[in-house]
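queue> pop job 88
queue> type: inverse folding (structure -> sequence)
queue> payload:
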C-alpha cells in the first residue's frame, strides 16, 4: 500500500526534491497528497507544482495567532487524508494532535539529544558542534512531539568531525547523510515496520 504524505516546508524544498527523486527511482512507496509552505515565496511550492503535487501557501502572518495558524495547517492535512506528515525544513512549531502522535517525522542535523532544541537549526547546529569541539556529529530522524527535537528517535547515523571542517563543509556531509536516512525512515513507516513503545522505536 502506498503511503500518503503531506510535506511541510518553509524554504527551497531540497528535502522535498530528494523525496520526490527517491519515489521516482522506486525507492519510496509514497504519494504526495500536498505540500504546505509557511511562506508564499518558498521555492518548495514551485517544486511541488512542477511535479503535479497540490501546493498550498499558508503564510503565518495572515493568521491572528499560533493556534489559528496551526488549525489551518491541520485542516489542510486532514482534508488531504495524510497517513504521515513529513517536515522538510519547516521553521515553525507544529502542535501535535492526538490522532497524529507518532505520525509526524522530522530530520535534525545532529545526534539528538546533543545540539538540538529551540533555535538550533541549519548552520547554527554546525557552528555549535565545531565551537564545542565535538569529534562526531550526524543526523537524526525522529517523530515529532510537543517539544523541539524531542520525539522518539527512529534512525541516527554518525560521521566524524574533521579537524579542518568549517560549518559549510560539515553541513555538506551531514546533508548527504540526511538525504539517505530520511527516505529510509519514511519507507520503514510505509512498510509498517515501525513500532513505538514510549521513547523506544523498534524497526522489524
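queue> result:
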Amino acid at each position: 500500500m502506498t503511503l500518503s504524505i503531506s510535506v511541510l516546508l518553509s524554504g527551497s524544498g531540497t528535502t522535498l526534491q530528494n523525496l520526490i527523486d527517491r519515489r521516482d527511482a522506486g525507492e519510496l512507496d509514497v504519494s504526495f497528497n500536498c505540500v504546505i509552505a509557511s511562506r508564499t515565496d518558498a521555492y518548495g511550492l514551485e517544486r511541488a507544482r512542477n511535479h503535479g503535487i497540490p501546493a498550498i501557501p499558508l503564510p503565518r502572518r495572515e493568521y491572528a495567532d499560533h493556534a489559528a495558524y496551526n488549525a489551518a495547517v491541520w485542516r489542510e492535512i486532514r482534508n488531504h487524508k495524510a497517513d504521515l506528515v513529513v517536515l522538510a525544513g519547516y521553521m515553525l512549531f507544529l502542535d501535535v494532535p492526538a490522532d497524529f502522535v507518532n505520525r509526524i517525522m522530522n530530520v535534525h542535523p545532529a545526534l539528538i539529544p546533543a545540539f538540538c532544541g529551540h533555535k538550533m537549526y541549519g548552520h547554527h547546529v554546525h557552528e555549535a558542534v565545531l565551537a564545542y569541539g565535538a569529534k562526531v556529529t550526524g543526523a537524526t530522524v525522529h517523530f515529532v512531539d510537543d517539544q523541539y527535537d524531542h520525539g522518539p528517535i527512529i534512525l541516527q547515523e554518525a560521521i566524524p568531525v574533521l579537524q579542518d571542517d568549517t560549518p559549510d563543509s560539515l553541513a555538506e556531509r551531514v546533508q548527504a547523510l540526511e538525504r539517505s536516512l530520511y527516505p529510509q525512515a519514511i519507507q520503514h513507516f510505509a512498510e509498517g515496520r515501525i513500532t513505538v513503545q514510549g521513547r523506544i522505536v523498534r524497526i522489524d
